[in-house]
Amino acid sequence: MKKLMYCCLAAAGLLASGALRGPLSAGEGFLFNGLLPAVSVPADNVQTDAKIRLGRQLYFDKRLSVDDTVSCATCHDPATGWAHHAPTDTGVKGQVGGRNSGSIIDAAYMKFQFWDGRAGSLEEQAVGPIANPIEMGEKLDNVVQKLNAIPGYKSQFQLVFGTDATADAIGKAIAAFERTIIAGPSPYDRYLQGDRRALTAAAVRGMDLFNGKGHCSACHSGPAFSDGGFHNLGVGYAGGKLKDEGRYAVTKDDRDMGAFKTPGLRNVAQTWPYLHDGSEKTLQDVIEFYDRGGVPNPHLDRLMLPLRLSRGEKADLLAFLNSLTGPVPEVGAPELPN
C-alpha cells in the first residue's frame, strides 16, 4: 500500500506538469517520457558552426591541463558512450577521483551539472574540471595565457567572440560543442512514433514496469529520463556514515545529505559502470540494487523501496533500458591549432 501511494503521488505530480501521457492502448500502461524536444540555447551563447568547431578543439585538447595529459575527452570519451568505463576517473599525475565521470550525452537538457549540481549551466560545468586539482589541475588564468599564445586559437577566439581567449569564452565554446551531443531516435522513440515493431514484447512489458511496479519514472521522468533532481539511494553508506555528502556539500541542507543528481537514461546501456561512484558494474546490477530498495540510511529517499521484482520482470526491465539506445554524433579528435 505504501509503495502504491508513492507511485500515485509521483503520477499526480507528473500529470500536473504535463509530463504524463495517456495510455497508448488498453493494457500498455502510462508513458512518463516522450520524445526529446529541441535543445534550449542561452541567449548569450547562440550556436554557430565556428563556435562549435572551436569548442570541439578545446574539448579534445590536453593542453588545458597542467601537464598536458588530460582533456575533457579523457573522461568523456566518444568511444565509450561519451563517458568512461572506469568506476571513477583518473586525472593529472595519476590522481584518482571519487566519482564516476557520467556521460555528456543529453547534458544539454540538464539544469544542474555534475553529480552534486554545483554548476548551474553547461558553460559553468565546462571550465570546472580545468581548475579541479584532481582532474586537470590547471589555473584558468594559465589556460587563457596558453591559448592566447597559440596563433590558431587566438584567431578563432577573435573570429567567434571578437576578443582574445577568456575563461568565459572557453566555457561558452565547449558548452556549444557539448550541446550537439544528443541521442538520436532509439527503438523506444520509434515505438512512440507508431512503429509497434520497434520494441520487443519484453521491452514493452519492461516499459510498463518502468512506469508502474518499478516506479522508475518517479525520478527518471521527462524526455531525457531525469527529473533533474537529487536523491539519496544510500550509495556508499557504511559504518553509520556516507562516504560522499553529495548535494549537501553544495546546499548545506540536511535534506540533501548523500543525494546525487538523477542521471538521464538515454544510451545508458553504453555508459557502464553506474551510480555516482561507479559501484554497480552492469545494468543488471543496478536493477538488483533498486530491487533491494537501495541502502538503508537516515537520509534514504522516500521513493527508495524494495521492488520485489521477479526474475522475468527484471529481464523485461533490462530489455526496456536497452531499447533507449539511439545513435549519437560520431566525433573524432580534430586537428588542434598550433
Helix-strand sequence: HHHHHHHHHEEEHEHH
CATH class of the largest domain: Mainly Alpha
Q: What is the topology, as strand order, of the major beta sheet?
A: 1-4
Low-confidence stretches: 1-31
The domain count comes to 2
**Global morphology:** globular
Q: Roughly how many Å apart are the termini?
A: 65 Å
CATH topology of the largest domain: Cytochrome Bc1 Complex, Chain D, domain 2
Largest sheet: 2 strands, antiparallel
Q: Beta-strand level of the residues, as a percent range?
A: under 5%
If helices are DSSP runs of H or I spanning 4 or more residues, what is the number of helices?
12
CATH homologous group name of the largest domain: Cytochrome c-like domain
For the secondary structure, the number of strands is: 4
Helix content: 25-40%
Q: Overall mean pLDDT score?
A: 91
CATH architecture of the largest domain: Orthogonal Bundle
Radius of gyration: 21 Å
Q: What structural class do helix, strand and pairing data support?
A: mainly alpha
